[in-house]
Amino acid sequence: MSYQLTDREYQAALKLNADYRYQYFVKNVQKGLELFVLKNDEGILFMETESDEDDNSTTNVIPVWCHENYAKYYAEQNADVSGYEPQSISLAIFIERWADNLESSNIELAIFPLSNTDCNIVKAKELIADLKIKDEPAK
Prior knowledge:
Elements (H helix, E strand, L loop, with lengths): L6 H8 L3 H15 L1 E7 L2 E2 L2 E4 L7 E7 L3 H10 L7 E6 H14 L3 E4 L8 E3 L1 H7 L9
Parallel strand pairs: 4-6
Antiparallel strand pairs: 1-2, 1-5, 3-4, 6-7
């Protein structure tokens, strides 16, 4: 279940730079135990980012947010994602079912983007480490 988000906190977070939004994201995913992606009838929103200036390759990324209101904000601000709605993913499901698949598919996470370029991009395992969650098999 999403954590309580006041209008004041919502507005303040939208003014943070990418590094502070990353810290805010980690803190609130720890609190709410879920994260959000944008989804439509065709599936989850993917974006591409340039990996390296030398080889001109791209990396697929999935944008994620710590509260559905931030995901809605992104969708409202970016016409190319019209029709996408926030989809909740529990942190436990993310760790158990998503993290390894993202890593093996070389898909990274765009953390709390407000635009298509203003965010930190990390691997799923890096995010899990920052959340201080051990990726241990269930006993």
